[in-house]
Structures are given as C-alpha cells and as structure tokens.
Design brief:
InterPro entries: DUF2911. This is DUF2911 domain-containing protein. By secondary structure, this protein is mostly beta strands. The chain is built from 1 helix and 9 strands; from the N terminus they run αβββββββββ. The protein has a 9-stranded antiparallel β-sheet, with no helix packed on it.
C-alpha cells in the first residue's frame, strides 16, 4: 500500500473515532433531538436579525402555568439558551438595543410576559439543578408585552418575525399563547 493511502486511512480512522467520542460524551449527533434546533432570520435592506433556539413540542401537556411555570424565568425554548442577533441598533418597545448578540429570557404570566435581552452568552439554558442560567446583572433591556390568546393550538414552540404591516414584531407562540415584541431600526446607527 502506498504512503498516501496509509495516511488517508489513518486520518479517516481518527475522524471516525473523534465523531464517535463527541457523539457519546458531548452531543448525540446521530439521534433525533426531542426539541430540534432552529433559526429564524429577518432581512430587509441592510438590516439582519436572527434568532437561534430549540423548539419543544406540546405533546398533550399543559404548557404555561405548568410545564413552564408562571412568574419564573424561562430559557425561552429548550436546551441551549436562545440567542438574538442584530446588525443594527434597534428600538425594542421604545428602548435602545445596540448592535450585538443577546440571550433571550422570558417570565411568562397569564396576562403579560416580561422579556429580557441579556448581554451574556450562556453555554446552556439551565444549570445542573434545572434552574435558568440567566444572570440579571447582564440584563440590558427588560420589557413587558401582553399575552394574546390563540384559538388554535401551536404544537411546537415557534419564534418568528412579523413585518406584515410595516410594524416589525418578534413573535413567540406555543399552545394557546402568543406574545409580540415590537421592534424598529433606530435612526441612530454606529459609524
């Protein structure tokens, strides 16, 4: 066997072992996730907004006030902390949100949600005791948004951007609950 083929086989064997070890000890890349990863992106002119999150299913469960308790911080999805990225300075419900990447946290209540944009990026959404990893000292922005009751059930947690009436909103919906976070591009942008 020539030298090139031997090296190629060694490299392939090392890659196979590395994938196996990563899958076994870090993240099972070969099995389907119960709450799959997703990304939603909004692009208009030179503005780009993106949310990376994990989408749990309802599966017949009672969601808000039960699986997701009222008045407690929620990682706003499952698994890794949900991230929100903007390439433009924004006004979120009238408050300034500079260019950057943030983790998105919420406190669901029956009639209103509190939404936090946190400057710290966390490796996961909860700690070993299943408590949210959010550190309040890194909250840059906090707003309250009203709950909208939905007639139809949303089976899988869904985050989206809605700009149908030229009033941009970040929406979050699951079960019979929806909230809308109003956003607009700020007139003040970095040079």
């Amino acid at each position: 066997m020539n030298r090139f083929l031997k090296r190629l086989l060694i490299i392939l064997a090392v890659v196979a072992v590395a994938l196996f070890l990563y899958s076994h000890f870090v993240e099972d890349i070969f099995s389907k996730r119960l709450s799959p990863k997703d990304a939603v992106k909004f692009e208009l002119n030179d503005t780009t907004l993106e949310v990376m999150y994990n989408r749990p299913f309802k599966k017949g469960r009672e969601i808000f006030g039960a699986l997701v308790p009222y008045d407690k911080v929620w990682r706003t999805g499952a698994n890794e902390a949900t991230t929100f990225t903007t390439n433009k300075n924004l006004l979120v419900d009238g408050q300034a949100l500079p260019v950057g990447t943030y983790t998105l946290w919420t406190v669901p209540r029956d009639s209103v949600w509190i939404v936090y944009f946190n400057t710290k990026e966390y490796p996961w959404g909860v700690d070993e005791q299943m408590q949210p990893m959010r550190e309040p000292r890194y909250d840059l922005l906090e707003i309250e948004v009203p709950v909208i009751a939905l007639e139809n059930t949303v089976e899988q947690f869904t985050i989206a951007f809605d700009n149908t009436t030229d009033n941009l909103k970040l929406t979050m919906a699951w079960d019979h609950t929806k909230v809308e976070v109003p956003m607009e591009v700020s007139k003040v942008q970095p040079e």
